[in-house]
Amino acid sequence: MEMVNPVTDMADCFNIEQLIRENIRMLEPYASARDEFSGSASVFLDANESPYNRYAMSGGLEDGKTGPLLNRYPDPGQRALKKDVARLKGLDESFVFLGNGSDEGIDLLFRVLCEPGRDNVVTVDPTYGMYRVCARINNVEQRSVLLRPDFSLDPSRVLEAVDENTRMVFLCSPNNPTANAMDESAVDLLLKALNCFLVIDEAYIDFSSSPGFLSRLKEEPKLIILQTLSKAWGLAGIRLGMVFAHPVLNTYLRAVKYPYNLNSLSMDVARQALKQRHSHRKRVEQILAGRARLSDRLKAFSFVEMVYPSDANFLLVKVSDPIRLYRDLMAAGIIVRDRSTVPLCDGCIRISVGTEEEHETLLQEMKRLEKTYSAGSGL
Ligand SMILES: *Cc1c(COP(=O)(O)O)cnc(C)c1O
Fold first, then answer.
1. Could you give the dihedral angle defined by the CA atoms of residues 31, 36, 38 and 41, in that order, rounded to the nearest 10 degrees?
2. Does residue 126's CB lie within 6 angstroms of at least one atom of ligand 1?
3. For 319-344, b where at least 16 C-beta lie within 10 A, e where not — what string?
4. Which residue ranges of the chain lie beneath pLDDT 70?
5. pLDDT of residue 60
6. Can you tell me which atom of ligand 1 is nearest the CA of 230?
7. Which candidate, 239, 232, 186, places its Cα nearest to that of 208?
8. Which of the listed residues 51, 68, 298, 379 has the most CB atoms within 10 Å of its CB?
9. Is any atom of ligand 1 closer than 6 Å to the C-beta of 155?
């Protein structure tokens, strides 16, 4: 008898509906007043709002605009912003879902795809902690597979971990905290072999020399891509995350989200920001230049063993005593991230790329510490 591989043999008939939780497939979503009305009108007496726009925004917005009408509910379909995002990314709007940060997207994916107590997801570690936290919150088993010691992706390890109850594999590229982008051929291998969704978190893609996987979305229904305005766009405060996925899956994400998950102020700021592509590009280039300079200067310290190559806006730095360095920097009011207890990241701290001034403060303090370290404990 021929051996049947349940993973690869089913890949030819990838069926999105089959991977949706049954209660979600049956769900009749809440229809808000503004859902049911889609046209233009001049008198709005349907949503029990106040007719008075008391908090008209002045200042802070460009061109003397007054900002959104805050007495009105925002558009639950987020049509205007969705259109802008779709145009920016070269996608049809039906592939775009907008959420309150990528974190909302991650949580919604769990709630739409994973039956608690039965289904599982696979993460490739070390990586962003939210995938695991979200799995726990939703009572979904999370299986952890390690990157190779050089931080490259080993697709065969992922395929060994998946089974018929696996609903998602999470990849982060460029990966947090290892800073590298995943190899395209390794990702391709996964896309071919998996019979579940492959989520690729591209929060740092604008800083990467690799183009990312957005162009593959149309031909790959398994692919889900997460992006955000929190990093390269400099808008962590407005909480605007993007999920790019097949329109069928998208329909379910929309059905499960809070009707008004994005607020008027955030959408307004996002739309203004997305128009300024040139200054966005310039800021990214500034950060890339800053990253290169910071990396070079960090390498000169006697207690710095390694500065890993970075495709993101941070550096993973291996030092001889990460906990001591972390504490000493903190005492000087400089906060970096201690990643030394994370698998494969022994001895590592993570440093975000900041301004030249911030780098100068950091490097001056490190120089001072270098002297005390070599005088004191022979490090
Ligand atoms: C920072 C980060 C995000 C951003 O999440 P938001 O909720 O959009 O702010 C997403 N994924 C990774 C891997 C990150 O490091």
1. -120
2. no
3. beebeebbebbeeeebebbbbbebeb
4. 1-12, 37-38, 57-66, 376-379
5. 47
6. 9
7. 232
8. 68
9. no
Q: Does the Cβ of 228 fall within 6 Å of ligand 1?
A: yes
- Encode pLDDT of 252-266 as tens digits: 999 999 999 999 999
29 preceded by a cis bond (ω within 30 of 0): no
Q: What is the DSSP secondary structure assignment for residue 26, as one 8-state letter?
A: T
DSSP labels for 230-263?
SSTTS-GGG--EEEE--HHHHHHHHHHS-TT-S-
Q: Is the CB of 101 under 6 A from ligand 1?
A: yes
CA separation for the pair 73, 96 (Å, rounded): 21
Q: Where are the beta strands (DSSP E) in the chain?
A: 96-99, 120-125, 141-146, 166-172, 197-201, 223-228, 241-244, 304-307, 314-319, 337-338, 348-352
Report which residue type is found at 133. Answer: V
- Whether ligand 1 lies within 6 angstroms of the CB of 99 is answered as no
Contacts of 298 (CB under 8 A, 6+ apart): 304, 307, 315, 317, 351, 363, 366
Residues 6+ apart with CB under 8 A from 378: none
Out of 104, 108, 130, give the residue to mutate to test ligand 1, the one with the largest number of ligand atoms within 8 Å of its CB. Answer: 130
User: How many Å is the maximal CA-CA distance in the chain?
Assistant: 77
Task: Report whether residue 201 contacts ligand 1, using a CB cutoff of 6 Å.
Answer: yes
**Which pTM was predicted?**
0.93
Cα torsion 123, 253, 275, 205 to 10°: value is 10
Residue-by-residue DSSP string for 132-154: HHHHHHTT-EEEEEEPPTTS---
Query: Is the separation of the CB atoms in 182 and 171 below 8 Å?
Result: yes
Residue 372: count of CB within 10 angstroms of its CB: 11
Q: Is the Cα torsion angle 53, 58, 64, 67 positive or negative in sign?
A: negative
